[in-house]
């Protein structure tokens, strides 16, 4: 995701999205006749089949064979209060490296399952292509990082004094604030591949929490560093969600 490193260790990212709507009409009812007519036996006409409306966008497959998440409607503002995802998740066994304790929280009122979000964050951070640490998710006690799925309005508040315009994510203090719009829709540079963009935005924002700053595109057509501001633009690079994609 794209980011703008600002004083105080805070970083922001994002991309705007459009909205659409529609309307329907029904025909006028005929005016009954005022003249009495003889009774006539009529076979009732069956009612027309109901019009089927499409529901949320269905899960679809990308060209790379990865199953993508179904998109939902994200409110501009939710409750403003976080719910910590309960339970702990240990890092994979048999792997060396420093253990980093972190917590996952989801703003109440968002249309996402907290456990599913936490499982995805844990999978991403403990992938061998990620930062090389052993991340342990906890529900209480001291932590180094908070990963917080937030509505656009709450993101704007959490990222102050930066201006996030309801479309960006950020690292601020000890919190990776993930804008739920970005989590839901991805960004233009990743096309319809929302799943890979999710890996990018988690690695990018947590990367700031681990002390990493922004990087530039190393050259036209080359793989983007994960700390490139990919939410804003790929700057001629190819998308990349991982700190160590060849690991």
From TrEMBL:
Q: Which Pfam families match?
A: DUF3152
Q: Which organism is it from?
A: Streptosporangium album
Q: Where is this region: Disordered?
A: 1-57
InterPro entries recorded: DUF3152
- The DUF3152 domain extends over 73-234
Start-end of Gly residues biased regions = 1-11
Protein name per the record = DUF3152 domain-containing protein
